[in-house]
Amino acid sequence: MTKRLLLTSLLALTAGGAMADEIRVLNWQGYGTDLDWATEAFTEATGHSVVHEYFTSEQEMLTKLRTNPGAYDVVLINAAFTRQAKDEGLIGPIDTSGMKNFDTVSESFKEGELVIDGDVYGVPWTWGLTSFAINTNAFEDAPDTIQVFWDPAHEGRVSIRDDALEAVQFGALATGQDVNEITDLDVVEAKLAELMPQIRTFWSSENDWNQFMAAGELDVATYWSGSAARSADMGLPVQFVVPKEGAVAWLDGLSVPDSSTKKEAAVAFIDWMIDPEFYVKWDAEGAPASANAAAAEALPDDSFNKQVLGDPEVVMRIQFQDPVDDATREKYLALWQGLKARQ
Amino acid sequence: MAGTLNAGEGRRAAGLLAPAYLWLTLAVFMPLSAMLFFSFLTAPPFGNEPVAATLANYFAFFETGTYGRLLWKSVKLGLWVTGLCILIGYPCALVLAKQIRGRAREALFLLVILPFWSNSLVRIFSWAIVLRGNGVLERALDLVWPGDVRLGLMFTPAAVVIGLVHSYLPYVILTSYLALQAIDDDIIAAARSLGAGRLTILRRLVLPLSLSGLLAGAVLIFVPVVGSFMEPRILGGRFGTYYGTVVEDQFVAVFNWPLGAALSFILLAVVLLILALSSPILRKGLQ
Amino acid sequence: MSGLRIAGYAWLALVLVFLYAPIFVMAAMSFNASPFYQLPFEASFRWYEDLAANTAIRAAATRSVLIALAAMTIATVLGTAAALALFRYDFRGKRVLQVLLFPPIAIPWLITGTAMLIFFFAIGLGRGTPAVLIGHVALALPYVIVVVNARLASFDRTLEEAARALGAGPWTVTRRVTLPWIAPGVVAGALFAFAVSFDQFVVSYFLAKPGDATLPVLIYTAIRKGFTPEINAVSTLIIGASMALMLVVARFFSFGGHR
After folding, report:
1. Which of A72, A206, A215 sits opposite C226 (nearest CB)?
2. C-alpha distances in angstroms, B190 versus A16, B98, B187, B210, B287?
3. Which Gene3D superfamilies did the record assign (chain A) (predicted)?
4. Which of A190, B4, C188, C257 is deepest in the core (most CB within 10 A)?
5. Using one digit for the tens of pLDDT, what is the confidence trace for B89-126?
6. Quick check: is A76 in a domain?
7. What is the ipTM for the molecules in this complex?
């Protein structure tokens, strides 16, 4: 009798083990997938638990995938890096047939960088802008130009992210160039060299950014649209600005590493993440724009994403970020490292 | 005398030594050899790029001024931190070893080296909290000296130096103290009775006799500081790019391990060169 | 009291303030309610409550302690054996063996750590706890050997010879005569090994597998990628625990003081 009880409970245990996986998500810190209420609800609904790992740059994310095969099940990849990750064999095609929310993902995103030769290598999740946000205590009126970073009035009170690509593209915007086709890199370098003395520090994560703002260290700093909404929601005196020079737009997708052994749970989690219901709740706390048309429509009219990113006048000024080849990236990295080394 | 073990002794000696040295071989010497090998490759052999032998990684160091400039910056940082640690720590060790007696000395000595046993990362982190704008230090100064005082120490090279000095100061105090303590008080008393002044005693007697400890401390500080990356990253802000951070980037972010390996070996060569150049002094001091 | 003496005390006092003030502030902030370290101070235990609920930090702490205990045990056994051999026997190449103990101490950890990463990948071991443990033992070994050696230096060889003359075999001599004498050195070496491993950040940083981080690695990642005063709380606990441990040890062994 006891034996049979033992056996059944053992069976129940192993069965439970096969059903409930622990999936490991690689993402930016504080970027949607690690919201407690969302992962808890996901665990409750599916039995799978969620653990997070963070990165502070796309390069670091790629190297984490390269050097830790099998360690991750879901990874957030900027569309500009998806093809590279696929070419290196880091991520695999995703079977979207079982996903209930994939159909409403905007068609324009499905035709983009995330779908390669008909296979979905990243599920379009969110998009947004890289521009800047101001400390409203430091400005009477919000500036309308990126040149505010070079304003001597804010010397030692500005910050940009420590990222070669972002820094160079920022310099390109400031010198009136196309971020995807920078014709005069020397001008960008000179412009960034002028910026250096203005900089208080570089930031590397959203949390960094919030702490610097809260400590009153900064007047103005580059930022992401979704993050700005979130910081404002936390009570920080922050306002997001899309200057007349324009801003860089990006698309983030959720991918599944080829080496993942829990692909089914991973896809279920991705499906959970593009669910309009989740998105509306997330947006209330501050989120980037959703790539799911149904989710975007479900937003209340006064939401930041509907107001700002829905404004055609703003959309005109946006340049979507293209993939960057290795040679160009190395050139940018050398430029950026050289600038930092001279500090 | 050397090499005169009989067979049984030889076996026993080998049996006792082999595990430790095999371990060191596996965990230190073979990795260093592997790294040397890697530094001559075009790509890591487990990526999907073709691999060939090359000297390009070493040439890369000289192609742009970036790496040389950063290496010099890191060496300067090492010298600054080592120098400050000596200036602050040696007098401290002197007071402990020669001025304070009995239980008080033991208690104070323990108090000085206790932080050494706490996590170095945690200590760097505490400085980030202390130095930040509107942080504790600025608030405290504001009480003493009202008005809009902005030290602006956080995210400066000074913050990096402060954090590193705090981390490594106990080393130099520990090694100097041990050397100073070994000096017989009677010798000092004898010198004094012969009419030697305080400064003469310090310069001609105490300093030479404790030099070994002082130098051991200096080496223990200089070597890790030249390769530091965590401290500049946390405290240095836009000034926080050093040789160590660039090497770290090659391994953690950029995935250019061969370049990282070559940069590491150049660093190792420079560190060894500096130690070799100062070895006449070191040898004299350590005798 | 002469002016120089007063200056001496004052200097010492200043150094102590310098050493302890930041640690104190860091600890105080773990009791401050603001997640952004904002002042004025508002007392709260919320970060300790969060910490108690944070399984990732607890797991990392447990892992760090286990790795440190394992590294300590292995390094102490291997290191004591090697120290005994280096003390007892004279042979060609002994100097070389002694010099070989220095690279693990003297080469910047950045280089040792990245070299281990490369090598462990090349042989297919990859990153993970086994790699971390191998690295920690290697870093701790030289300390154990040096510390035990120092204790052995004061050991009277004739005791071993006398025991041998009385018919004791080599193992009996070691167990009954040598080991009891060097026991304090072995314990001190073991403590060093524990501290080296528990405090080790750089090598663990390159070798630890994601999700299997040690406590210092977790703290660093948190500092770089977003943290709350929870990190202060865990740091305060670590500092408190390691200092308490050292105080206990100091009661049994006199460090540098007069015997």
Report:
1. A206
2. 82, 15, 5, 18, 23
3. Periplasmic binding protein-like II
4. C188
5. 999 999 998 888 878 888 888 888 777 767 788 888 88
6. yes
7. 0.84
